Structure formats: C-alpha cells, structure tokens
C-alpha cells in the first residue's frame, strides 16, 4: 500500500537541493515504479537495461543520449524513452536537470558495474 | 518489445494539438505504463482506482485534486500521486495542461462509468 502523500512536490524546487551529479534521488513513486531526479554533467557510462525501458525528461539544460547508431538530443520539456535492450550513454556538456521513470530496483548503470553505479537516494 | 522511438517528444508542443478537454492522449509508453497528456477544464467525476496509484504533473495552469478530506492544489511543475484506493475528483477553473502516468488499461474514471469514461487516444 502506497502511503498517502501530504501534498504536491514541486519538481523545480526539488532540484535546488541537489549539488552532486549522476546521483539520482527518488522524487516519488507510482506503484512499483520510481520517479527519480538528477543533475548531470559530463559523460555517463555505456550500459543497457535488458529488462526495462527507461524514460528521460529534461527539465533544464540539454541531454544527449548517445545510442550506438545516433545521438538523441533533448532540450527542456523533451521526453525520450530508451527501449529495453538498447545500449546508451547519456552526456551533458553543461549541468542539466533530468527526470527518469523506471521500475524500482533498476540499476542506474544497467548491466555495467563501475564507480558510477549507485543506489537511488531519498530526496531529503 | 517496445519499438525504438525515432526521436524526442516535446511535451509542450504535444499539447498544442489538443483542443478538447478530459480526453487523454498517449504521449509515450514505458514498459506496460502509459504517459498520457490532457487538457482539462471544469470538474471531472469522483472515482477511485482500486488497483493503481495515479501520478499527476501540471505543465501549465492549476489543477485541484479534490480528496474527501481536503483539496490538493497543483501549479506548474507540481507532482502529486493519488494512492490506489483513494477517492478523488480533479477540477480546474481555467484550462490546464496535465501529464498522467499509470498502467496501460487504466480507466480514466476508475471504478465509475459515465459519459466521462473514454479510452486513451494516440496523440496523432
């Protein structure tokens, strides 16, 4: 049973509390899915989620999702879903604020494990 | 298998093509969940989703989610999750653009069936 939230969460304000990069925070949950937010800058790591799609929404900045055959460039309010099994590597030249939506327990680096691999943290 | 999308979708532009109210369109999908968008104005109908949480994100305007014990008012960039089993009735005094996230097949009026009950449509 999902606990009743006490009120709305402002996504823009939520980003204000984040200082580090590539460290996803849980904004809220919908059933067994997490809505995560992160600030990102630089290049992440090539990885694949074999069992799940991954939604990216850019709130501020610009995110390039490198695929093996092309780059997908997302500006503010752009949404892109990386289908399951598709290798990708996000990067951002300047600091960028993103929202992700994926099943609980999804590892941020997918089938790759390295120093970027972290668990989602609570926002506060 | 989710088909590979060809490029990003801009959520703001997507709303431009919508003229009617309370008629959700599928923006994209993540596994067996739909990201839906709708323009809303006026009062919807009291209903409950017994088996699923429902996420609301306001993009423009103001949405009041009436609960039986209180109102939750969402402005732009505010997110609120109505937990499963919680009776609610959205309303908006002026036209408001919202994003919803819920499992495919979720009925917009939940356990209530009336003239507001519609299937999600494709965006284009």
TrEMBL record, chains A, B:
The keyword Nucleotide-binding does not apply. InterPro entries: Cupin_2 (IPR013096), PKS_Associated_Protein (IPR052044), RmlC-like_jellyroll (IPR014710), RmlC_Cupin_sf (IPR011051). Keywords: Isomerase. GO terms for molecular function: isomerase activity. Pfam families: Cupin_2. Residues 41-99 form the Cupin type-2 domain. The keyword Isomerase applies. It comes from the Bacteria. This is Mannose-6-phosphate isomerase, cupin superfamily. It comes from Nakamurella panacisegetis.
